[in-house]
Design a protein that fits this description.
2 copies of one chain form a homodimer. Chain A has about 350 residues and is an alpha/beta fold. In chain A, about 45% of the residues lie in helices and about 10% in strands. A 7-stranded parallel beta sheet of chain A has the order 1-4-5-6-7-8-9. In chain A, strands 2-3 form a two-stranded antiparallel sheet. The relative contact order of chain A is 0.14.
């Protein structure tokens, strides 16, 4: 594994050019993705559960964009289904039976064997490892316990996840019980991915930045910390991405990941100064910059490379997922610009 | 004016207790507001344009919550109508004819006389000053030029305001022309409010934190700076609130306001350390904490007061608008807790 620039960067080792991939790189902005998605009348969830097609869309960006890592196509909420929750996408995720009461929490199942609970996940990982033939490493992923709980309690996306907050503040004991179950499931789920062949794990905490730094420390961090500590990491790097965490990076670092994902709301140089040299960072181009003309994109890539200032432990990425209306030519251009401008 | 705790705090002068008000304090969480809103079949926009009823809902929180300032009930987008744009709320704001081309920008009107263009605004201000009888000062407000432009170009709310970004990056000259027109309108609008009797001006930059710090400096800050510099401030304090700006407070300070509004994503003590002693701050309780039991609310109020550590120049507020499903009893409790716990 040590020969991959991507893996070396995760461990703050020297690289000959900066590795780059894009969050949501297998997605709707690619006509090739839309073509696979259109095969049959299946839903988004059906695509997640079809190892053949989901592997196909996972590989597309490697060929099209020349990125330095593949990420399995899936959704952070799929492992919640076998906990006993009916999941649908309309198109946003919806759980028909949100977790609100003590009885709801008690009823949640933590499957012993996650490979049996979500068989399509190890299947896509094994298939992808074969198809990638070692060209780039494969990233597996999961939601952070807090972000998963947001959806489980609210039942859907929300501006402020009021139901989750009411439980968190009003019944901290019930919240703790829920979070421990979710964390245990998550741990089994991610270790199963490592077992199946994932070569990096990214933990998405999309809603972790929704709470104040004080509440992050109290209600979010302990569970991610426990999750990361429990992973069978061996030589597998772990990336922790908390959207909206630029004001509390010291806390994010305490979770113990090898790499910290940065959104675009903080300058990368400033973030690295705060975080220190012993942790790698991943980020942080504003996805909207991909709407810009290519000279502007190049200028922004150069600015971010300058901010990193040749420090080891840097993976270029967007600060959030690529958006559906981006012209793929601009994504291709951006990846090439990172490689070209950072080459030693 | 100097006798108000609120005004003193804006200018970093000593106070005998910390002043407090709530963003969106005249709003749907209050049954008294909903009762006025239900009078007749009028829309939200009709309420904004009815000085009698909008003054009534503006005064309600003074009586009900005992807050230290009133804010006129209005919407940041109302002054855009006389620029030649048809505004509707469905319930989010929608402009039927978004600004996209050079011809669209040229067609925008900057009214000479804003008091004639939006007569209901000076009318509500004059009416409120009479009804308040000097009990608390009256805050007028407007959107920051960037946030106004976001809606004007996109035509509605958006996750990433792609149309605005395409113009900003792709045709910076057109963007500049648009922003200069919006800034000039905004300046006339806010000076008209001061003329009519507003005793403080708050500038809302709801979307200013959507861009990277680099783009904020380039595309957002120059216009707010020009706006604030052009205000007939006399003894009128100016508050600048940029949601999501905790990672770039040094830049927000450059805009030149007397007070900087803080959301809850940064600890207040840390924000004050970054900003220094020569500017006041306003914030920053997570609005979701109002879903908590009262002992938790009290604990959070105390924590924020502790973070301020008796520094002059502090106005307590939420980090964003109060949400419709909050129990008014919790808002009343919070205001009282601030007064009680901060009393000298």
């Amino acid at each position: 594994m040590a020969e991959y620039n991507f893996i070396k960067a995760c461990f703050c080792q020297p690289v000959d050019r900066v590795p780059v991939w894009l969050m949501r790189q297998a997605g709707r902005y690619l006509p090739e993705y839309r073509a696979v998605r259109a095969q049959g009348a299946g839903t988004f969830l059906d695509l997640c559960k079809d190892p053949q097609r989901s592997a196909e869309v996972s590989v597309q960006p490697i060929d099209i964009l020349d990125v330095d890592a593949a990420i399995m196509f899936s959704d952070i909420l799929t492992p919640i289904e076998p906990m006993g929750m009916a999941l649908d996408f309309v198109p946003g995720p919806v759980f028909a039976n949100p977790v609100r009461t003590s009885a709801d929490v008690d009823a949640l199942v933590v499957p012993e064997n996650m490979a049996e609970a979500v068989p399509y996940v190890p299947q896509i990982i094994q298939r992808l490892r074969q198809q990638l033939e070692g060209r780039v490493p494969l990233i597996g992923f999961g939601g952070a316990p807090f972000t998963l709980a947001c959806y489980m309690v609210e039942g859907k996306g929300s501006k402020d996840f009021a139901a989750l907050k009411r439980m968190m503040y009003g019944d901290p004991e019930l919240y703790r019980t829920l979070m421990e179950k979710v964390t245990e499931m998550d741990l089994r789920y991610l270790n199963m991915q490592i077992e199946a062949g994932a070569q990096t794990i990214q933990i998405f905490d999309t809603w972790g930045g929704l709470v104040s730094p004080t509440d992050f420390e109290k209600f979010v961090l302990p569970y991610t910390k426990k999750l990361i500590a429990g992973l069978n990491r061996k030589d597998i790097p772990v990336i922790y991405f908390v959207k909206g965490s630029g004001t509390m990076l010291e806390l994010v670092k305490e979770a113990g990941s090898d790499v910290i994902g940065l959104d675009w709301h903080i300058n990368l140089g400033k973030a690295r100064d705060i975080l220190g040299d012993d942790v790698a960072v991943q980020g942080n181009l504003d996805p909207s910059v991909l709407y810009a003309p290519q000279p502007y994109i190049e200028q922004e890539v150069q600015r971010i490379l300058n901010e990193n200032d040749d420090r080891p432990g840097f993976i270029f990425n967007l600060g959030h997922g690529i958006t559906p209306s981006v012209d793929p030519a601009n994504a291709i251009f951006m990846v090439d610009a990172v490689h070209r401008l950072s080459k030693k």
